[in-house]
Structures are given as C-alpha cells and as structure tokens.
Amino acid sequence: MPVANPVITCVSASATGISSNFVADPFLYIQGDVFYVFFETKNSVTMQGDIGVARSTNKGASWEQLGIALVEDWHLSYLYVFEYNGNISFRLCEQLSFM
C-alpha cells in the first residue's frame, strides 16, 4: 500500500479538536509493531508549541491522530522519545517561555 506524504499536516493534527497552525520536528518511536510519531504542533489559540502524537498499526501506511501528548504553559519542541525502565519517556531539547 503506498504511503501518502506528508503523513502529518496541521489539518490532520487539527482533526483531534486542537487547532494547529503548523507541525514540525517529527520523532518516530517504534514499540513492537506499532509506530508512533511525536511532533511539535503550534496551537492556534495559545500560539505556543505543544507535542502531538499519531499512531500507525500498519507500518506507516496510515496514521491515526491521537491528540496532544504534552502541553505546558510555554512553548515545547524538539522532542526525543525513549524507553526507560519499561516506560516511554520524553526529553525536550527546547522549551521557551515568553513573558
């Protein structure tokens, strides 16, 4: 089955009910036969970056938008996802706060 590219857009990210201006910085995480892609999505209301997540159970042929995985009172981006002691963990390389 051919894969439609791009697999994630601000329109597909908005399908979960959170309006998005753009998506960026995807990070693929594979757990068994399930693919997850975590990505920055700019919230159209707060104008900050949140971390969204989508899942594929068919090796990336199609993606289900799961929604927002991480949200804070500041901008989040450049996510790194890894497993530690059997749990999915996150590392954020960039966090910005505007006062």
Describe, in short, the structure shown.
This protein is mostly beta strands and 99 residues long. The protein has one helix and six strands; from the N terminus they run H-E-E-E-E-E-E.
Provide structural commentary.
The structure is a single chain. This protein has one domain. A four-stranded antiparallel beta sheet has the order 1-2-3-4. It has a two-stranded antiparallel ribbon with strand order 5-6. It has one helix and six strands; from the N terminus they run αββββββ. By secondary structure, the protein is mainly β. The model has no long low-confidence stretch (mean pLDDT 84). 5% of the residues lie in helices and 58% in strands.
Note the topology.
Blueprint: H1 10-14, E1 20-31, E2 34-43, E3 49-56, E4 64-70, E5 75-84, E6 87-96
Antiparallel strand pairs: 1-2, 2-3, 3-4, 5-6
Pfam families: GINT1_N
InterPro entries: GINT1_N, Glyco_hydro_beta-prop_sf, Glycosyl_Hydrlase_43_Enz
Keywords: Carbohydrate metabolism
Helix content: under 10%
Order of strands across the widest beta sheet? 1-2-3-4
Count of individual helical segments: 1
Distance between the termini: 48 Å
Task: Point out poorly predicted stretches.
Answer: none
Main sheet specs? 4 strands, antiparallel
Q: Give the rounded overall mean pLDDT.
A: 84
Rg to the nearest angstrom?
13 Å
Morphology: globular
Number of domains: 1
Provide the descriptors you would attach to this structure in a database record.
99 residues, mainly beta, four-stranded antiparallel β-sheet, two-stranded antiparallel ribbon, 1 helix, 58% strand, GINT1_N, carbohydrate metabolism, Glycosyl_Hydrlase_43_Enz, Glucosamine inositolphosphorylceramide transferase 1 N-terminal domain-containing protein
